[in-house]
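User: Fold this; tokens only.

Assistant: Input:
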Amino acid sequence: MGIVKIKDKTFKTSITEAEIKERVKQLAAQISHDMEGKNPLFLGVLNGAFIFAADLMREMTIPCEISFVKLASYQGTISTGKIKEVFGINEDLTGRTVVIVEDIVDTGATMKNMLESLGTRNPASIHICTLFVKPDKLKEPLDIEYAAFSIPNDFILGYGLDYDQEGRWLREIYTLCEE
């Protein structure tokens, strides 16, 4: 187990790079199978999901497209509970199969907000794909079809996830150590 210090916090390895790669490959295979013939549009949620979205796309075996949306609800290690859209979607979603690619579904507030926003654009269907879900913290009833990992209510970073914009470059997932 590795230990890293980011700013004023210490984190330890909780999920290895190999485990992440294997789960991303499995998710891509499942999505490719489920969406054969649909040319889905993946909407990666920036900044946290950019690495996950890129790796997921590289493992897809069907024609698909990708775009990104930037939403923010975190400050430091705590969700502010207020979602602000920084920049949105330019694609026409009418009749499209849309797959939201998120790094982590925590309370579900960000995802609920995004589903409501996308629903007004007349897509054929909207699916949720997330690297992590925290079932014990989930407050919104969401149909999360594709989740790589179910994790406890710990603060994590690495593989695109950050602590105050740092740590995204880490190849493994690290969990905040008790201090």
